[in-house]
Structures are given as C-alpha cells and as structure tokens.
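User: My collaborator sent over this chain with a note saying "see what the structure looks like." That's all I know about it. Can you take a look?
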Amino acid sequence: MLLVQKFSLNLNSHPGFLFAEITLDHTVVHFEIPANDPEKLSAFYKNLFGWTVDKTPMGEMGDYYLLRTRAGIGPEDMEKAQHTAGSDGGMMKRMNESQRPVNYIMVESVDDYAKKAEELGGKIIVPKTPIPNMGAFAVALDPEGNPFGVFESSGT
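Assistant: Without extra context I'll predict from the sequence alone. Here is the result:
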C-alpha cells in the first residue's frame, strides 16, 4: 500500500521513457501494539473504538491481529484505504516485558533512513526485513530510547 498525501513531480525525458520522482509525506502508516493476551486486548479496542479485528495465523510467530480503525474499509478495499484518513495497525503476543507499541513511518528507502537515523544518534534494533508482496521495514530507537519503524512499499 503506497500512501502519498503530498508529492512533487520531477519529470525527465529519456528516449521512450518518462521518470517521475515522488516525495513522500513521511506519515504514520501502521502501528503495532504488543499484548500479554492479544485476544483479550484486541476485544478491548474493538469494544472501545469499534475497530474491526482480523486474526491471522503467522506460523512460528503466532497469531497476528489486524486492527482496522476505519469503519467500512476491509482488506479488499485498498483503493478506498489509500484515500481515507487514518491508519490501521496490528497486535501480537508480547515478545518480552520491555516491548512497547511502535509507529511505522512511510519512507522512500528503509536503507537510507536507517543510516540517517544512526547518523542522528538513533540505533537500529531490527534490521531491514522484507514483507512479501508489501515492502520492507526496520525498527529503530530514537536518541531517548523510543521505538519507531520505517516502512518502504514495494508498490504492489
């Protein structure tokens, strides 16, 4: 899913080709909430905010709970989701007691932003990881120890 809210277009001519350079808004496009009891906690958010929860088996990782925060937009509504404010998220079994929620920001390149985060005093704690048919992500800590993720879309 590629969410572009603002972009600049730089068109360059090349025999038979047209190249476009897109600048992303770097907005939060996904969030994840770790839970001791994902079944119970996902029910809490469903009942509190009316979110839709889709439980998906993820093999050894266990179940992943997709949290759909925008009413009337399901997994088959990608076009509508791209033009509707807000972001969806996920929930999974907490892997350790210190695991905290993470917001994922859309970037042009996970590699470039991971390098830039480190140059600015951050630390990469989960290196670039591919997500089949979606893109890739990495997770970092900011200089004060707050986790955040960066995500690049594969354009599919």
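A starting point for your reply to your collaborator: Confidence is low (pLDDT under 50) at residues 1-20.
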